[in-house]
Write a structure and sequence with these properties.
Length: about 500
């Protein structure tokens, strides 16, 4: 039994002005052939789960190519065609296949295809034909489409946010495909898309209301004949028709049962729709709360500068407010290649005066003037073998600098955009986050696995930016209408009822 392993993972923020070129994929790393196995084996990612399944289920897994880059702006036409072209060419050259395993994200948008993942699935299906099972493992933030469902045999998404079960869900997907090839099961899929947006602030699966939705998914999976079920929280920063929550059920041969399950899941979420509307304190409120807390560190999630959602990572909104309030023992990262170069030129131990941050655009504050000592210079590479959001193990922040300012702030300046999903980013640079009163993490839920173990408290902050929790800031042209909570009068009645 020969299974092809390949994928294309991109979370596209259509409100980011800078497009994603093919060079962005090259810089992040395009893994080809055995390099996929070398980089992902034994890890916690989607690829790791596929590799583990191949070994344990006794099939020949053939790694072809994997394209990935950080969340960013719309994918150019050229980049998409080069990615899709290489994927299809390798599938053609190395076939025939008994099955296909696709490691996708589910929220990719290109200049030509607003449903880029669906287009990949359609092209793969057209190449291998209707008789070859195609499995797709996707992120929980996918904007799932009917096109993706129609051209695959089984789709399985993560069930945790932060995403700590990528390996397990990919294994589940691969197992369904292997059993399909062996004739043990005959998957059928049903998708339900109620007019509902789940605010990013309410997407943590460890708390209500998402916690109950995950329990509902587990209840559905326990039904006779059910192979899998997923709740997709959706990605609200992609202005596409299918943006919003979606619910998928995969059954062994009974499409009616799959539809009933998907509709039940959707209806259960719809009944609680008011609970998915987000709210969070302002930067000033959050900083005052953190400063007044009896114990630190208080971790502030910089929602509007969520690198994992496509933001630049150089917002100074919280830093500027911390300076105004006179807050001490403050730690955060900033993407600022220009400042890094200035520190490198000055050298370790030097005192520098710089304007840091807010150099990508004017949506994330203004550059902040600081005076500080260059304490540490590193190459920005670090490793974290523990489970991290999305399962990544190896990280590269580019040349990085630890700057200690006269305001008693510690700034970790990076020359590559990188989310705060691993605490090893700090430890590897000689920084102990536990010693600070206020720690800013650029993200919403993705930094939790890294920082929750040391945090006295976590506060989500309603900062401005291209990943703001306030969705009224964005001008949508392609989304569905009506869509709750944008249009509070939106209604939903699943076809055939909600049982």
């Amino acid at each position: 039994m020969r299974l092809a392993l390949l994928g294309f993972s991109h979370e596209t923020n259509t409100f980011v002005s800078i497009p994603t070129s093919f060079r962005a994929f090259e810089e992040s790393g395009i893994w080809r052939g055995d390099e996929i196995i070398q980089r992902a084996r034994g890890g916690h990612s989607t690829l790791s789960g596929f590799i583990e399944a191949g070994a344990r289920l006794g099939v020949e897994l053939v790694p072809l190519v994997y394209f990935h880059t950080e969340p960013s702006g719309m994918i150019t036409r050229d980049a998409f065609e080069r990615v899709a072209g290489e994927m299809l060419q390798l599938l053609h050259e190395h076939g025939p296949w008994d099955g296909i395993l696709l490691a996708q994200h589910g929220a990719a948008v290109s200049e030509e295809y607003h449903d880029a993942d669906g287009e990949i699935a359609a092209r793969v299906r057209a190449l291998v034909g209707p008789g070859v099972p195609v499995g797709m493992a996707i992120d929980m933030h996918a904007n799932l489409t009917q096109k993706m469902v129609e051209h695959t045999t089984a789709i399985v998404s993560y069930r945790t946010n932060p995403h700590l079960d990528a390996r397990e869900r990919a294994y589940e997907c691969a197992e369904i495909i292997v059993r399909t090839i062996q004739g043990e099961v005959h998957p059928v899929q049903a998708l339900e898309t109620p007019p509902l947006v789940i605010n990013i602030l309410k997407q943590f699966t460890g708390e209500e209301p998402m916690k109950s939705l995950i329990r509902d998914v587990e209840e559905v999976i326990a039904r006779p004949g059910m192979l899998s079920a997923s709740v997709l929280e959706g990605y609200p920063y992609a202005d596409v028709l299918e943006m919003g929550a979606s619910f998928l059920a995969v059954h062994n041969g009974d499409i009616a049962a799959a539809r009933a399950a998907a509709r039940w899941l959707a209806w259960r979420a719809w009944e609680r729709r008011a609970e998915f509307v987000g709210d969070a304190p302002s930067p000033r409120q959050a900083l005052e709360m953190a400063a007044a807390a009896p114990k630190g560190p208080v971790v502030l999630m910089d929602v509007g500068d969520n690198i994992g959602g496509g933001s630049p990572g150089d917002s100074t909104v919280l830093l500027a407010e911390a300076k105004r309030l006179g807050i001490r023992r403050y730690l955060q990262t900033l993407y600022d290649p220009e400042a890094v170069q200035a520190c490198l030129a000055a050298g370790p131990g030097a005192t520098v005066m710089l304007k840091v941050g807010a150099k990508t655009d004017r949506l994330h504050g203004e550059p902040v003037e600081v005076t500080g000592r260059v304490r540490v210079i590193t190459d920005g590479r670090f490793e974290d073998p523990r489970p991290t959001h999305g399962g990544a193990r190896f990280f590269n922040a580019g040349m990085s600098v630890v700057l200690e300012t006269t305001d008693e702030h510690t700034l970790v300046l990076t020359s590559r955009r990188i989310g705060n999903t691993s605490i090893e980013q700090m430890y590897s640079a000689g920084v102990q986050p536990e010693r600070y009163q206020v720690v800013v993490a650029k993200g919403v839920h993705s930094p939790r696995p890294a920082y929750a173990p040391i945090a006295a408290q976590i506060i989500l902050v309603n900062t401005p930016g291209v990943t703001s929790a306030d969705l009224s800031r964005f001008h949508y042209r392609h989304r569905r209408r009506p869509l709750y909570p944008f249009e509070p009068e939106a209604t939903y009645q699943p076809e055939g009822g909600s049982a």
